[in-house]
Amino acid sequence: MDERWEERLPESVLDHHRTTYDLIIVGGGIVGASAALEAVRRGASVALVDAGLDGRASPAGAGIISPVALDRHEDRPEWTSVITRCVGHYRQLLADVDELDPDNAGSATFREVGELVVARDDPAELATLGAISARLSTDVGRRAHGVSEPPVELAGTDLHAYWPELRGDLRAIFIKDVGRVDGGRLTERLLAAASRLGCQSSGSPAFRIIPGWASLDPAADRPIVQVGSERLSAPAVLLATGAWAGSALDAMGLDGQIRPVRGQIVHLRLPGAAAGGRPVVNTLGAGYLLGFDDRIVVGATHEDAGFDASVTAEGQHRVLAAALDLAPGLGTATLLQTRVGLRPVSRDGLPSVGAVAAGIHVATGLGAMINKYHVSPTLQQTTDTDPEAMLTSGKVAMRYCGSWEPEEIAAVPYGKANIDIAPLPTGPAGNRDFYSNGLANVIAAKTKHPQQAWEFVQFLGSKRAAEIQATTGTVIPAYKGEATAYTKAMPEYDMKVFVDQLQYAEPFPSSLQTATWRDYATQQFANAWTGKSTVADVAHEVAARMNKDLAAEKP
């Protein structure tokens, strides 16, 4: 699987004489290889060009083939239609490959093993698991997703019968009709089948593989592909270069359509574990497990790292920490390797397939089919990273911030040059409701200088201190008439936005539980950001917790 595929193909497939074809395919992953096989089957002459770059997604990917996505965008008909048809196509594709490549028929390229969707003992996760189960429990839902049987609920020993390494507090549903594929092996078999079929044509082979970097000639009046010193022509060119398709699209004026998202996937060996027939284990946001005959695969990171296909200590740690939290029994496993694949992710989170110019077609963006809504930073990234750092590094486009933060944002060159302040959006009633709170000036109880500390605290509450805070843009002062100085403190920003919105402010309750509320709200709103709950439901839940604590504090 780690060998170069062209080293095992017939010499005739590597013919270097023909330069005109019916179709030129750029990219030798699963998409390019399957397109080549289909085109050759239809009688077309095909040249496939592949640069063999590090970070190719097909040989690195875990290979989960599931018709059921685990997020709130599942109801998008354009998504459901594509994914269901793709999963259904696998069986026919593999039957065709077995017929054309009989020497390897029945090999462990693809195996239907089913899927366990697991949830921790968490109300939000259990609710999401229940929603998925309900969706697949109806005839209509199963037909929409290509699932043949209702899901089966599992817990305890029933769940451990499939994966004994899993933690004990998980609940799960088992979904049939889910498989796993060895992407590298499938690519090899597709190319071998295409080459066998191409060699059966009369005259020169109808299928040729050309190792090298391909570029389109923008000055040509027809599709011309340059590979080293060789110029290839065809009435149609298919760009199936995965994450690298973005550069070709950028050159055609279609900027930013595809970008790479790095995935680090860890391979383990657990002595005595026969994992080849185990179902895929998928979580509601904390990674996955799947078994092959000789290994267990756990993943994966979703990183904005450009085209850097390096294995990093942080990436391995993140994957292994999540895996061991999910399945502590993997703690004795041996680390075999970490593979890295660069997923091609499109702007809208859907596969990009179709014509982009005269004779030029693209088929990429399938990173969305692995994790289609990681175009933005992952939940783990946003919760583990300071929100201001995410904004000032350009990782997120906007965030809710307080009147005390512009000074810190402006201290970062990117923030000063690219970020501005805008009012909150209006709600259904036309308001921009938010909460406000004052500043508490406190003294350390065990200070050695109580008199001086008390005098300093008194100064912090004075009008002079408010003037200093206003003119430096530190915070909106409480003294009337001082807000104007605050709005002028940082002319690069529209600071008046904060002052204008005070009319909508709701005072934040004073309580000993303020810090607890903040942490609780952060945890609960993560369920809204990932679609497990609505913002309104989470807001009501947080408010109920606050009201309960306030009632308990009353004398």
Automatic annotation (TrEMBL):
- Keyword Flavoprotein present in the record's keywords: the answer is yes
Q: Which residue intervals define the domain FAD dependent oxidoreductase in the entry?
A: 22-367
* Cellular component aspect of the GO annotation: cytoplasm
Which cofactor(s) are needed, names only? FAD
Coiled-coil positions are none
On whether NADP is a keyword of this UniProt record, the answer is no
**What SUPFAM superfamilies is this protein classified in?**
FAD/NAD(P)-binding domain, Periplasmic binding protein-like II
Q: Which InterPro entries match?
A: FAD-dep_OxRdtase, FAD/NAD-bd_sf, SBP
Please report a single Pfam family linked to this protein. SBP_bac_8
Q: Name one GO molecular function term.
A: oxidoreductase activity
Q: Where on the tree of life does the source sit, at the highest rank?
A: Bacteria
Which UniProt keywords are listed? Flavoprotein, Oxidoreductase
Family to which the UniProt record says this protein belongs? Belongs to the DadA oxidoreductase family.
**Record protein name field:** FAD dependent oxidoreductase domain-containing protein
What organism does this protein naturally occur in?
Microlunatus endophyticus
